[in-house]
Amino acid sequence: MIEIPKIEKESAVIVSLNKDRISKEIVNEHITELKELASTAGAEVLHNIIQNNRPINNATYIGKGKVEELRLLVEDENINLIIFDDDLSPVQLRNLEKIINRKIIDRSGLILDIFATRAKTKEAKTQVELAQLQYMLPRLTRAWTHLSKQYGGIGTKGPGETQIETDRRIIRNRISLLKEKLTKIEKQRNTQSQGRKNFLRIALVGYTNAGKSTLFNLLTKSDVFAEDKLFATLDSTTRQLTIKNETVLLSDTVGFIRKLPPNLIASFKSTLSEVKDADIIFHVIDFSHPYYEDHIKVVEKTLRDLGCDKKLQIKIFNKIDAVTDLQKIDYVRNTYKNCFIISAQRGINVSSLIENLEKIINDSFIEETIQLPIKNAKTAAQIHNLAEVISTKYDDNFVHITYRSKKENSEKIKKILYEKE
């Protein structure tokens, strides 16, 4: 990825279209979130423009009157960046740039820009670059113009050559190469996961900035980067957590957000495999946020998209130290059964979460002894792959294997034995 350094903080105006006639409060919440995204990317939002109760204009997204209002505003105040809260089509993007003559990005472009800034490891950089290229391909003319020397700043950190004449063929070749790289990474992850078969695996998920990394550091005594900003964590990190002599693998994952670009979800498939491979999902929620229930819906939808909605999920309402409304606490306890209300920052009620983990571990594992004919070495090898073998005893014709495994693996072993009979 080629990152063009910012010379100065960019001034910006954000634009939203309330096409679904949602309440003013929710519209303002979406605007606030977009402002936070812009701030994370390094922009200073000076104004926000909302157009209410209008269908999408196929040519310019917002109506002609609003486009003219926007043009006059950015020219009068010398604002150089316009951010739309929804994705714009390539046609809408080109038409708006012709009329307004300013740099324009949409929500997906902004999120991709933040990811490009936050990506640190080789895997994350590869994933972000792939998502950027797939996003840019239909917007080629506009995108590569932004990568030329006449532009810089937000929405311009991108992969590939910094030449306007770069064509689609080069981009497609690069996309193919990056997909091959990510396929290799996925194979490596699958190989690594084979060594984790007998550990209970827990994935922390949640809306961005819910406090997952803070909880992860508290439980595992690690120092994973945690910051009060959106998307502080991009790479999944796995650490061992010991509970009463039992080892649990806990993974911290990238945060979710409303309207997360589909290309980004697809590109982060290998990272999100930690969620798919988990036995239990800890859904961390920022309880102090006024729209925490909307955040819950976004995360649950993303989990459905990943095919992980059937897994055991434990909701953890974080940042209780910032909540003073007792009725709100009672509501959560009555609405979300078996949830935990904690403060990861201050360690409040975390001990009850750990105690519950002990029960989960006890309920998740089983110890059994089976008898196999000595000649059946292949089945014995399969058992070693699926379980922790505690003892092996031989007599004249049989081998007696005592093993400990997750209950699901024990069922697999019984199925293997049944097929051999």
Can you describe this structure?
By secondary structure, the chain is α/β, with parallel strands linked by helices. The protein has 3 domains: 10-146, Rossmann fold, CATH 3.40.50; 195-348, Rossmann fold; 365-420. Helices cover 45% and strands 21% of the residues. The strands form 3 sheets. The protein has a 6-stranded mixed beta sheet with strand order 6-7-5-8-9-10, with helices on both faces. A 4-stranded parallel beta sheet has the order 2-1-3-4, with helices on both faces. It has a 3-stranded antiparallel beta sheet with strand order 11-13-12. A hairpin with a 2-residue loop joins strand 6 and strand 7. Helix 1 (24-41) runs parallel beside helix 4. It is elongated, with a radius of gyration of 26 Å.
Task: Summarize the structure in short.
The longest helix is centred in the middle third of the chain and has 27 residues, at 168-194.
